[in-house]
Amino acid sequence: MTLPRAVLLDLDGTLIDTEELYLEVAGELLGAHGLTLSEEARIAAIGSSMETLAALVRAAGLDVPSEVVIEDIVAGVVARLRESVPWRDGARDLLAALVAAGIRVGLVTMSYRVVVDRVLRDVGFGFFAVVVSGDEVAEGKPAPEAYVRAAGLLGVDPTDCVAVEDSQTGAASARSAGMWVIGAPFYRPLPSDAVDELWDSLVGRQADDLINRPLRDRSARMGIAP
């Protein structure tokens, strides 16, 4: 029985129900100027970087510098999280199960660190061995930088890691880093070919559900039967 050397988890949409918070705040920002975010833009924003969201807001007609858009959206999301952190069902139990099994857990998110810190104050800082946030990388998801950085901080090879993601953008990031990717979609369905396996929920998931994933992936890439 082989466990991954690390499990790397996305935040928004995977552990907490906040993708819609970002879209709500962006919508309010646009609405104050009589503008709206198209459905296509909303879909494109899911799992993407703050820079991408800011670009989508500006493309909708808001003539404000990107850094100002980002600052306003982040402030709005943090304000909402001060009221409550909307955890997905089963998320906190999964974190506890991974830590109890001795698996190091990393958080890899496009949320900025101020948002992440607010969430960590709710769940506790001890669950995550490393955190990589969106303002700590040059290229956001779907680029692999965030996941490669997290693996490097843990001192493990990316192929020894399992990633859990809810979006195609995030799944593409983890896959291009060389990780086994579990899809746990929430806002929108994930195509089966976007991930290595699909979960319909986090509820009831344990460390045993992550056994042998990286080894099976490495074997496949080396042309060896699992």
Alpha carbon gap, first and last residue = 13 Å
Largest sheet: 6 strands, parallel
Binned, the helix content reads: 40-55%
* Helical run tally: 9
**Helix and strand string, N-terminal first?**
EHHHHHEHEHEHEEH
DSSP, total strands: 6
Strand content: 5-15%
Provide mean pLDDT, rounded. 89
Radius of gyration equals 17 Å
Structural class category:
alpha/beta
- The poorly predicted ranges are 215-226
Neighbour order of strands in the largest sheet: 3-2-1-4-5-6
Shape: globular
Nutshell version of this structure?
Helix content is about 45%, strand content about 10%.
What do these coordinates show?
43% of the residues lie in helices and 10% in strands. With 226 residues, it is of the alpha/beta class. α6 (113-123) links the parallel β2 (104-108) and β3. The chain has helices at residues 19-31, 39-45, 50-59, 66-83, 91-100, 113-123, 145-154, 168-176, 213-221; strands at 6-9, 104-108, 130-132, 161-165, 180-183, 197-198. The protein starts with 5 loop residues before the first strand and ends in a 5-residue tail after the last helix. A six-stranded parallel beta sheet has the order 3-2-1-4-5-6, sandwiched between helices. The protein is built from nine helices and six strands. The radius of gyration is 17 Å and the shape is globular.
Topology:
Blueprint: E1 6-9, H1 19-31, H2 39-45, H3 50-59, H4 66-83, H5 91-100, E2 104-108, H6 113-123, E3 130-132, H7 145-154, E4 161-165, H8 168-176, E5 180-183, E6 197-198, H9 213-221
Parallel strand pairs: 1-2, 1-4, 2-3, 4-5, 5-6
Helix pairs in contact: 1-4, 2-3, 3-4, 4-6
